[in-house]
Amino acid sequence: MSNSSLYDRLGGEDKIRSIVTDLLALHKQNPAISVRYDNAKKKDAEIIGLVVELLGSATGGPQQYTGMDMTTAHKGMNCSEAEFVAVLDDLLEALTKNGIGELEKAEVLALNYALKDEIVHV
Ligand code: HEM
After folding, report:
1. Structural domains in the chain (count)
2. Which of 16, 46, 59, 91 sits in a 20 to 30 Å window from 100, CA-based?
């Protein structure tokens, strides 16, 4: 296994931004969750910036996450497990589209799956 951080193996901030930009575009086309993003209060660029910070800091990058904690950010949305899986499906697709390796894809998915209880039905 490589010793370098997941952040470096993903390709750093530019690659993470590309993944997250694709991810939001996929969410907006995904019938299971698109309506959630139609009603978002924040602008796309702001949501993308926050998710880049979150993924960067969670994978060993220099970013600091400046957004709300996951429970506060999703409180009152009552997101279902099916919606959570739809988000992870889109994440896998965005990672694949950006040429991320299988090991790194699994690591990113596991990091995000671990947030389930902070996001679903809160
Ligand atoms: C691992 C899964 C997820 C992660 C890592 C994640 C991450 C985030 C982050 C970082 C924000 C911005 C927080 C802030 O405003 O300070 C956000 C906002 C948002 N999330 Fe999630 N999220 C996840 C799952 C979901 C799910 C399952 C849904 C519902 C389908 C969802 C819907 C939204 C919406 C609509 C916003 C925008 C809120 C607004 O600006 O009004 N997210 N998410």
Report:
1. 1
2. 46
| Assigned domain for 45 exists | yes
Judged against a pLDDT cut of 80, whether residue 3 lies above it is answered with no
Q: How far apart are CA 46 and CA 119, in angstroms?
A: 19
The string of pLDDT tens digits covering residues 91-115 is: 999 999 999 999 999 999 999 999 9
Domain span at residue 37? 11-119
Residues lining ligand 1, judged by CB closer than 6 Å?
33, 36-37, 40-42, 47, 50-51, 54, 67-68, 73-74, 77, 79, 83-84, 87, 112, 115, 119
Tokens of 58: 């969670």
- Does a structural domain hold residue 46? yes
Give me ligand 1 centre to Cα 74, in Å. 6
